[in-house]
Design a protein that fits this description.
Number of helices: 16
Structural class: alpha/beta
Largest sheet: 7 strands, mixed
Bound molecules: pyridoxal-5'-phosphate
Radius of gyration: 26 Å
Length: 495
């Protein structure tokens, strides 16, 4: 690639008078005089002027600077995209789905309402909960909706002193954020040395503050990829003090078909369809964060709801008559195309194959962990599920950090894992390969990680100054965050 030419901004490639198109003569030009003068431009818009091939190559080359799951291995951790079959994209894009309007009469979109309704039932079966709403548009939106359900439940019992939410220190950042947005106070629960919720600390908190606890938010396996084996005790402690258990099911893949939040004592949960159930995410959407509740909490779920009438065999959309409902929490029904993909995913895997997801995700993660633990520090041993965390390189004498390793991986064509999260360790490097990678792909990654460890020992400068082969080298994160230069004009001025 000729970086000098095509890596520039399109404005820098501009040559006055250069044209890349030919359009018919503007028939309406004479009518410009009829427009009010204050609406007319005083001078021509400043647009780049380039020939056709320069424009096409410019944008094509820019697109090559992207990296996605279709480009290479993407072992992120926590927010990893799982399996996203392309066929589901094609099905969701069918005009029979994508061409529908949310306000059209229910009798003209019975198939869509059937899918909506049936997906809710499938999610109930997978999670052991009683009812789902598909309305929330993201994981965090689901958390907020779920917490609002919990608050509505306490208030319906006249118990309005419950304003606190227990959240483990390993939790995803959206958990405390959602609690705060919901007007609740966050109480942090410590982890024990095994990376599990500290029962001792939880007992203490429940004893001291039990009457003000609305809920405990958790995920299992937790963000370290470890199964919280004390979950029955934890749920009992929280329930006994009058609180509810909230399950963060953003990443449900290690559990699918084996183990259900409803059976573990959770009362309310959300799922990220755009992680576990076949919608690629990134760049802000579209997402879907369905919320499920156990029996007895259905009345608080938001509207609109899709209702099936057995007698007429018809589906309808209902908004009224739900006195205790939260009401609307967004526009219409949420992101329907994400639901179509999730529905296709669940049905095409089927009951048998869906049970393979968790074991394969666990096997892949364990294979990488065991293969690399001589070079990378494993702060918590024992069994992991779909993901695990290293605490940087084992040999700390080289001064090579997790950031350096992550940057060096880019030179080898891999997306970097999640770094410096969870906050429990100084040099967290969190890896989730997902269930759908081949052994050869995993071996390639393992080899490169060993290679980087060797470079760190033999030539640490090489790793500390990486990346060397990307269009832009190491950026100064602090400067970029504190003093972002985001426009061409500003850049010209700076130079
Ligand atoms: C991704 C994620 C969330 C938040 O989901 P969004 O759709 O990004 O709002 C919450 N919890 C966990 C564990 C996650 O991985």
């Amino acid at each position: 690639m000729n970086n000098r030419l095509y890596g520039n901004l399109i404005f820098e490639l501009s040559k006055p008078g250069r044209r890349g198109y030919s359009l018919p003569k503007n028939e309406y030009k004479h009518k410009l005089g009829e427009l009010p003068a204050h609406l007319l431009r005083a001078k021509d818009a400043e647009l780049p002027e380039c020939d056709e091939m320069t424009v096409v190559r410019h944008y094509t080359n820019l697109s090559h600077n992207n990296f996605g799951v279709n480009d290479g291995f993407y072992p992120l951790g926590s927010c990893t995209m799982k399996y996203n079959p392309v066929i589901n994209e094609e099905l969701a894009a069918l005009k029979e789905f994508a061409g529908k309007h949310p306000l059209q009469p229910a009798d003209t979109c019975q198939t869509l309402l059937f899918i909506y309704h049936d997906l809710q039932k499938q999610l109930c079966a997978l999670t052991g909960l009683s009812e789902f709403t598909l309305n929330p548009c993201a994981g965090a939106h689901g958390e907020l909706t779920g917490l609002m359900v919990i608050r509505a439940y306490h208030q319906s019992r006249g118990d309005d002193k419950r304003t606190k939410v227990l959240i483990p220190d390993s939790a995803h950042g959206t958990n405390p954020a959602s609690a705060a947005v919901c007007g609740l106070e966050v109480v942090e629960v410590k982890s024990d040395p095994d990376g599990l919720v500290s029962l001792e600390h939880l007992e203490e908190l429940v004893k001291e503050q039990g009457e003000s606890i609305a809920a405990m938010m958790m995920t299992n396996p937790n963000t370290l990829g470890i199964f919280e084996k004390n979950i029955p005790e934890i749920a009992k402690l929280v329930h006994d003090c009058g609180g509810l258990m909230y399950y963060d099911g953003a990443n449900l893949n290690p559990m699918l078909g084996y183990c259900r939040p409803g059976d573990m004592g959770f009362d309310v949960m959300h799922i990220n369809l755009h992680k576990t159930f076949s919608t690629p995410h990134g760049g802000g959407g579209p997402g879907s964060g369905p919320v499920g509740v156990r029996e007895g909490l259905e009345c608080f779920l938001p509207t609109p709801r899709v209702v099936y009438d057995e007698e007429t065999n018809e589906y309808s959309v209902e908004t009224g008559d739900y006195e205790q409902s939260l009401g609307s929490i967004g526009s219409f029904f949420g992101n329907f195309n994400v639901m179509v993909k999730a529905y296709c995913y669940i049905l095409s895997l089927g009951k048998e194959n869906i049970r393979m997801v968790g074991p394969l995700a666990t096997l892949n993660a364990t294979y990488i962990k065991e293969s690399l633990k001589d070079d990378y520090l494993l702060p918590i041993g024992g069994l992991n599920k779909h993901e695990f965390v290293f605490d940087g390189l084992k040999d700390k004498s080289t001064g090579v950090t997790t950031m350096d390793v992550a940057k060096r991986l880019l030179d080898y064509g891999y997306h970097a894992p999640t770094i410096y999260f969870p906050l429990l360790f100084h040099e967290s490097l969190m890896i989730e390969p997902t269930e759908n990678e081949s052994k050869e792909t995993l071996d390639g990654f393992i080899e490169v990680m060993h290679q980087i460890a060797q470079e760190a020992r033999e030539n640490p400068e090489l790793v500390k100054t990486a990346p060397h082969l990307t269009p832009i080298g190491r950026v100064d994160d602090v400067l970029a965050a504190k003093h972002p230069v985001v426009t061409f004009r500003q850049m010209q001025q700076e130079l």
